[in-house]
Design brief:
Rossmann fold, single chain, 33% helix, alpha/beta, 13 helices, Transcription Regulator spoIIAA, binds 5'-deoxyadenosine, rSAM_horseshoe, binds iron/sulfur cluster
């Protein structure tokens, strides 16, 4: 009988892909099958995120719960960004944890499994050319890493400390992985990196041809049978005209762009070391919309960064009103260890922070209602990927709207034209017209 693996994944898409990589290694090399049932598991992995503070507290209470519920012989491994940043501390605080594996050391899962109390968290470890075995949670959409680490120094962000310096994965490996995914039925690929449009800045081998992100997109779009390419996250600073124009004219690239604003105030952006101003951001949105009018734009915003005044916050609101983002991920600033901003003393009052977040989110909802109303009666080409409750099947339009229709699993992995019949904030409902 095969051994059972229970894995919980927190955080971003990159973490989801890391989990797939670990599952692949454990299946092929160690004979594990996944289970949804913690009590049955021989190995329990938690793939953690440390981008904000809350999930770190949650980790230890969750580990306590795992310990109570697990089989006596089951091992527990803590992986991912919190593993990188807390390291040995995790075993000190939770001595029943068997090993700790950092976000940059995923390929060592087979090794740490057999060494009790192993802590592998080297952020200089280079696994950019490691050949992982294949495993995908979805056969319709393939997540593919194009780089590891991050070279930026945003003053609020812990990621460069958990994932190390940025190294691009060679384009031939990416293209081969995409081809394999397409051969196995995926019509869409989703490229992942902390900073995708900085691709090509550094490869493991200095002899590697200088391929930039725009060129990588061109090469990938030649793969026959591949219909859609998405990616996250691009950095507004690196959105040059060449990239935006390729994005607009390449029919395989989905017309949905994530543009993490973080703040609309040029003063705060400078304190964050984001490398662009409010004007640059608005200029890039304008350029993008001028060549690609139907593009949907999503963003990340942090409110109450140290020193954020009412005027600074008003700048963020101004950008929101001008851009009318289709989707916003908004957060209260959370001081993180080993970051520059951790030492900033001009902290914003907690009540002010909460009020700003609430205001921003309600404004976004108002703007969204306005945006969504215009979709009623429109037709979108939808790629179906999920079977929902009550005989609904859902998927995404090219511009990333989540759309559901009545239907069954025959629709999964298929494209259909769908006319929108009713509007919700996060999901639209429609009927198939072709
Ligand atoms: N506090 C709050 N939000 C943060 N993010 C990153 N670091 C922090 C922090 N210290 C947000 C940013 C980023 C998203 C993934 O998480 O908006 O784009
Ligand atoms: Fe992803 Fe950042 Fe969280 Fe790490 S800290 S899992 S890179 S969101």
């Amino acid at each position: 009988m095969s051994k059972k693996l229970f894995i919980e994944t927190l955080g971003c898409a990159m973490n989801s892909r890391d989990s797939e990589h670990m599952i692949a290694q454990l299946r092929e090399k160690e004979g594990y099958e996944t289970t949804q049932n913690l009590e049955d598991a021989d190995l329990i992995l938690i793939n953690t995120c440390s981008v904000r503070e809350r999930p770190v507290h949650k980790l230890f209470s969750e580990l306590g719960g795992f310990k109570k519920r697990k089989k006596p012989s089951a091992k527990i491994g803590v992986c991912g960004c919190t593993a990188s940043h807390l390291g040995e501390e995790i075993i000190k605080r939770a001595p029943y944890v068997n090993f700790v594996l950092g976000a940059r050391n995923v390929s060592k899962i087979g090794e740490v499994l057999h060494k009790d109390k192993a802590v592998e968290i080297d952020i200089n470890y280079d696994e950019s050319e490691f050949a992982f075995d294949d495993f995908r949670t979805s056969s319709y959409k393939a997540y593919i890493n194009i780089s590891i680490g991050c070279d930026k120094q945003c003053t609020y962000c812990i990621v460069p400390k958990t994932r190390g310096d940025e190294i691009s994965i060679p384009d031939d490996l990416i293209i081969n992985e995409a081809k394999r995914a397409v051969d196995n039925g995926a019509k869409e690929i989703f490229l992942l990196g902390q900073n995708v449009n900085n691709y090509g800045r550094r490869f493991s081998s200095s002899e590697h041809e200088k391929v930039n992100f725009t060129e990588l997109l061109r090469r990938l779009s030649k793969i026959e049978g591949l219909e859609r390419i998405r990616f996250t996250s691009p950095h507004p600073f690196h959105m040059d005209d060449e990239f935006i124009e390729e994005f607009a004219k390449n029919p395989k690239i989905c017309k949905s762009m994530h543009m993490p604003l973080q703040s609309g105030s040029s003063k705060v952006l400078k304190e964050m070391k984001r490398g662009y101003t409010k004007e640059w951001f608005l200029n890039r949105v304008q350029k993008l919309r001028s060549v690609c009018p139907d593009v949907s734009i999503s963003t990340d915003i942090i409110v109450a960064f140290p020193g954020e005044s009412d005027e600074d916050f008003a700048d963020t609101i101004d950008v929101m009103k001008q851009v009318k983002f289709d989707q916003i991920f908004s957060f209260k600033y959370s001081p993180r260890p080993e970051t520059e901003a951790e030492h900033f003393t001009n902290v914003v009052d907690e009540d002010v922070a909460s009020d700003r977040l609430a205001y921003l989110q309600s404004l976004h909802n108002e703007l969204l209602d306005e945006i969504n109303t215009k979709y009623l009666g429109e037709t979108f080409r939808v790629y179906f990927e999920n079977l929902n409750k009550d005989n609904f099947v859902s998927g995404r339009s090219d511009n990333n709207l989540v759309i559901k229709v009545k239907g069954s699993e025959e629709l999964l992995g298929e494209f259909r034209d769908v006319k929108i019949t009713s509007i919700g904030r996060t999901i639209l409902t429609g009927e198939i017209v072709a």
